[in-house]
Amino acid sequence: MKVLVTGGLGYIGSHTVVELLNEGYEVVVVDNLSNSSIDVYDKIKIITGKDFPFYEEDVCIEKKLDEIFSKEKPDAVIHFAAYKAVGESVEKPIMYYENNLVSTMKLCKVMKKHNCNVFVFSSSATVYGDPEVLPIKESARLSTTNPYGSTKLMNEQILKDVCISNKDFSAMILRYFNPIGAHKSGLIGENPNGIPNNLMPYIVRVATRELEILSIFGDDYDTPDGTGVRDYIHVVDLAKGHIKALEKAFQEAGVKYYNLGTGTGYSVLEMVKSFEKVNNVKVPYKIVGRRAGDIAACYADPTKAYNELGWKAEFGLEDMMRDSYNFVLKLNDEKRSNE
Ligand code: UD1
Fold first, then answer.
1. For residue 310, what is the domain's CATH number?
2. Alpha-carbon span 78 to 83, nearest angstrom
C-alpha cells in the first residue's frame, strides 16, 4: 500500500511517516517546507533505514498534485499540511481559509480523478470550542472561536460531503488533543519557527535558557489549581493512531470521527512540575493574565478510538517530558557543532 503524506516533514507528519515506514507501507511525502526543514527528510531515513520519494510542492497547486498522483499512484492520502497558529489566523483569516481549505479541495479533486478513495484528515479538538461536558465525546456540540479552528471544521464538512457523493470514499477525521513529545531517537520533534505559542515548546526553551521565563496564562480558572487543563498526548502515540485509522479506512467506506487523546487532563502547573522533576531542571514561571480565547479545561473521551480502531495512548507524562527535552537538547548540540 502506498500512502501520500502531505506535510510529512512537519511535527506530526514526520512521526507518522516513521510509523508508516516501520509498518511496511510505501510512503510519498509532499511538503512545501513552509514550516518544516529538509533535514527532517534525512532524519526519517536515518531512523527507519528506508528511502522514500519527497516532493517539495504546495498541495494547493492542482497541476503539481496531478503530476505526483500520475507518477506515484497512491492508495491513500494522509493530509497534515496546513497553517496552525491560532493568533496568526485571527490576523490573516483569508490566508488561513485559502491555504487550509483549497489544499483539501484540490486533494479531493485529484484523488477522484485518480480513483484514490482513502483520506485521513488531521483535525483538532479545537472543533469542540469551549466544551460543555468533560471528557469530550465525538458526538459533542461543535463550534469554533477562530479562523484556524473554522478551517478544521469546514474541512470536516467538505470530507463528509465527499463521502456522501462517493460511496466508495472513506474519510477518517482524527481530532487531536495536545500533541507533545518526540521520537525516542531525539532526531525529530517539534521545532517551531520563532517564539513558540504552545506550552510544551515554550517550557523546553525556558529550561534550555533560550527563553527567560514561562508566562502562565491565568490561575483563576475553574480547575483544581486554577491553571488550564489539557489532554497532552505523545506524538508517537498520535502517529500510531493514524496507522490504525488507515487500516480501518481501507476496510470501510464513509466518514468517521475519532478523538486521539489520552483521556487524562493535566494543568499547566502540573506540566511545569513534572518537567522539572523528570528532567532535573528549573523552569522559572510567572502568573500573568488569561490568554484571549483560552478555555479552562479540555480532555478527551478516547473510548471510541479504542473500541473501533483498537488504539489507545501508551506513553505516559514522564515519557513526554523526557522526549520533548531530549529532542531540543540534541537539536541545540547539533546547531552548536555546525557553527
Ligand atoms: C492551542 C490552540 C488550539 C490548537 C492547539 C494545537 C489556542 C487558543 N489554542 O491549544 O486551537 O489546536 O494549540 O496547536 O491557541 N499556556 C501557558 N503559557 C504559554 C503557553 C500556553 O500558560 O506560554 C497554557 C494555555 O493557557 C493552556 C495550556 O498552556 O492552558 C496549553 O496551551 P497550548 O499549548 O497553546 O495549547 P492549547 O491552547 O490547548
1. 3.40.50.720
2. 16
268/38 Cα distance (integer angstroms): 33
What confidence tens digit (pLDDT) does each residue in 111-130 have? 999 999 999 999 999 999 99
For residue 55, indicate whether it is catalytic: no
Kindly state if the Cβ of 22 falls inside 6 Å of ligand 1. no
Q: How many helices (H) and strands (E) does the chain have?
A: 11, 14
Q: Is 79 in the pocket of ligand 1 (CB under 6 A)?
A: no
Give the tens place of pLDDT for each residue, 79-114. 999 999 999 999 999 999 999 999 999 999 999 999
- What DSSP state is assigned to residue 127? G
- The C-alpha atoms of residue 28 and residue 58 are separated, in whole angstroms, by 14
Residue 198 CA, ligand 1 centroid: distance in Å: 5
Ligand 1 centroid–CA 334 distance in Å is: 28
In eight-state DSSP terms, residue 210 is S
The boundaries of the domain holding residue 181 are 2-338
Q: Do residues 106 and 65 make contact, with C-beta atoms less than 8 angstroms apart?
A: yes
| Separation of CA 304 and ligand 1 centre (Å) | 25
Q: Tell me what pLDDT residue 194 has.
A: 86
Three-class HEC string of 12-75: HHHHHHHHHHHCCCEEEEECCCCCCCCHHHHHHHHHHCCCCCEECCCCCCHHHHHHHHHHHCCC
Global pTM value: 0.98
- Does residue 271 line the site of ligand 1, with CB under 6 A? no
Q: Do residues 243 and 287 touch, judged by C-beta distance below 8 A?
A: no
CA separation for the pair 42, 51 (Å, rounded)? 9
Which residues of the chain, if any, have pLDDT below 50?
none
Which atom of ligand 1 is nearest to 124's Cα? Answer: 12
Which among 11, 86, 121, 231 is the best mutation to test ligand 1's pocket, defined by most ligand atoms within 8 Å of the CB? Answer: 86
Give the number of domains in the chain.
1
Residue from 11, 96, 148, 202 carrying the catalytic annotation: 148
